[in-house]
User: Fold this.
Amino acid sequence: MKIQLKDKKLKDIDAQLEIVFVVNRDFEDLFVRDAKELKKLNFKAEQDSTALIVGSDRIYVGVDDLKSYNLRTAAAKAIKAIQLTTYSTLKVASYINEDETSIEAMVEGFILGAYRFERYKSEKSKNVIESITFSTQSFNAQTLDIQKAKEAIAKAHVVATSTNFTRDIVNTTPDDCYPEVLADIATHLAKEQGLECNVLKPNEIKEQKMEALLAVARASRHKPRVIHLMHKPKNPKAVVSLVGKGLTYDSGGLSLKPSEHMVTMKADKSGGSAVLGIMRAVAILKLPIEVHGFVGAVENMIGGDAYKPDDVLVSKNGKTIEVRNTDAEGRLVLADVLAYAQQEVKADYLYDMATLTGACVVGVGEYTIGIMSNDSKASQTIVEVGHEVSGELVTKLDFNRYLKATLKSNIADICNISNTRYGGAITAGLFLSEFIDENHKNKWVHLDIAGPSFVEHEWGENPAGASGAGVRLIVATLEHLAR
Ligand code: BES
Ligand code: ZN
Ligand code: ZN
Assistant:
């Protein structure tokens, strides 16, 4: 899909179909060219509603206002509707909004909305949108800064295609995407985009004393990998480490998941897959900050060699962990990879992303990322970027000492589950905090993406299945830090 900007009036741009965004508040008094037809279709310009007028080759899309999160989802809905037709060249005005984010939001919406995962379909869908041309005409008094708009298109293209890159990995089945494959994807990405890459295989993981990660991996025929991707520009403005949970499958282990909870657990690699997507974007955008992406790639299975409830594991940082539930495996993998990341890189910011708990989904709903940290300023940055830039839903969850106490173990330093059924997202975050060293204490933020990373129906700009949760959010956060 080619996306371009032309310094021409909309009517002078050659395309098969025109996309018209309509703000519903002004709709009634507005002069709309296809008023009669729209009336027949009972089109009220409600947010995300569309009406295709074949006679005039226009599609109308409703929005509440021109805020970027509204334009983004509306653009996604429009493109989905267009994909059902045979129109393939499109044009649209630039609809400049207050903070001049309209083009970026529309480009993201178009690319994210057009995404389809068809690897396992015998019949692939036919309509591929060839091109979308933006006109400098904006339908309001403001004039467009052409150079800025072109940069916005290029940037949005990178961010959205990187999100789709992450979606592809997450949607791939556990039989086709196991730790070695995840490492191959990383290696390939590094070659393609000029990143440095180091992959630890089991022997090296053992040398690094990541015994908690190795225990989780033990019963799988697919051996684990620890991936380290590096983006190292000259004179970086900051150093950031990202750590992702890459459980290519989470059966629960011996604390086996009931069947209805096991389906979708191919998506337990969403955090690691998001880290890969972010590294792709960072490399193409050449962000002036040093970024390290770490992924713990592991499969959690059952078998004679499986780790067990009652085991005590010695993690990389020396702390001992009493295993009481083998399904709380993500935090074991992350404990070791977080320790490794801190050993390898002294970072100014340390972010981990994980589909860590069902409790987070219960607590904040399936569309929202839960954000935790020791330092409210560190997490606030990400929350604000979510609200103001990326449009992803985020909310803070606060730590407290009473929940911390629920992780005490009688026989080891800490237990891998808490002794209460409440506050599971927070107790999981508190478990991770035990593996953050003094230097990184206030630089670390944990993102629980268990809800939004994989939803089995369409929502907003996302399709059914993997959403690429966290990619836009963290790329925007990194850009913010680079400023
Ligand atoms: N991968 C799951 C968390 C999860 C649940 C992600 C639903 C996406 C959707 C994680 O490894 C897990 O099983 N967590 C347990 C923790 C419990 C044993 C303390 C959970 O949430 O039930
Ligand atoms: Zn689990
Ligand atoms: Zn898991």
